[in-house]
Amino acid sequence: MLRRIALVCAAGIMVVFILSACGTEKANQEQQTADVKLIIKASDYKFDQTEYRVKGNQPIQFSLESTGNHGITIDKLDLSLDPTNPNQVITPTAGTYTFECSIACGLGHKDMKATLIVE
């Protein structure tokens, strides 16, 4: 019986540590700020530009303004935006990154492509 109580207490402590770590990561993401902002607008199965340019090696706030259900994911930059997470601050490295709408949004979905050029 004493062993069972010890196991339950240990499990409870582990859950508290895990939840506090998740909260800290979220807080750190929310505290990140950037002087440079890039807004990407998505609607009618297209992005507002076919090409976006930013300077690299500096924090940039990427924002998705979407009419409809659209998203963007660039795995190589750990960038993921969608209607539930429309803003993210990252420090991108130089390169050319093609991205597409990451949410199956309808008949024109396959045509939603653009390029991010980080100089």
From TrEMBL:
KW Signal (keyword) present: yes
Keyword rRNA-binding: no
Signal peptide (residue range): 1-21
InterPro entries referenced in this protein's UniProt entry, alphabetically: Cupredoxin
Keywords: Signal
Protein name as catalogued: Cupredoxin domain-containing protein
High-level lineage: Bacteria, Bacillati, Bacillota, Bacilli, Bacillales
